């Protein structure tokens, strides 16, 4: 059985409860144990002197997804694109969601930095269907949605600085959906801090 089909099964049988208050969302103990250095060491770096930019990503850093309310996280990571000429950095957060039922039309992303609530439009929302039950079997097709949004560097820095060892408190991100089928995701601050460390280790 493929990894994608395993993810689909997880979405059907282990989907997070929409009734869980976001205040109770916690990182798993295993994810909370990971330090920024773990993510920094495993950061994927692409690009050389022949490219216009260097791409650094935590996509290969862990297989332990953060908590989610409203969908299953198939993949989630932080990445930064650094322009070789200007040194300017473009930070993005990527999440691939899988769920059953109608397609989620994500129209807004919300997150909090300190006491400040940030609302942004996603830069990319992509949909696809990967798996459907056989004709004679009950159930709905598994929907996949990729959501990408930009985060200002000062917000990434603030989240990186908020990291506390062993803390299970996630950075909460809400993906607002047109019909109210919102998805709330928890990202490990250690992952953000690790990406931050790896980015400045390139200098």
Task: Please characterize this protein's 3D structure.
This protein has a six-stranded antiparallel beta sheet. A five-stranded antiparallel beta sheet has the order 3-11-10-6-7. The protein has one domain. It has helices spanning 3-13, 29-33, 36-41, 153-161, 189-201, and strands spanning 44-46, 53-57, 68-69, 72-83, 89-100, 106-113, 116-120, 124-131, 142-151, 171-177, 183-187. The model is unreliable at 1-17 (pLDDT under 50). α4 packs across α5 (189-201). The protein is of the alpha+beta class. β4 and β5 (89-100) form a beta hairpin. It is globular, with a radius of gyration of 17 Å. It contains five helices and eleven strands. It is 22% helix and 38% strand. Keywords: Plasmid.
Concise account of the structure shown:
The protein is of the alpha+beta class and 203 residues long.
First-last Cα distance:
43 Å
What Rg do the Cα atoms give?
A: 17 Å
User: Which structural class do the helices and strands define?
Assistant: alpha+beta
**What is the makeup of the main sheet?**
6 strands, antiparallel
Beta-sheet strand percentage?
A: 35-45%
Q: Give the fraction of residues assigned to helices.
A: 10-25%
What is the count of structural domains? 1
Form type? globular
Query: Count the strands?
Result: 11
Average pLDDT works out at 87
Keywords: Plasmid
Describe the structure using short key phrases:
6-stranded antiparallel sheet, 5 helices, globular, plasmid, 11 strands, 22% helix, 203 residues, alpha+beta
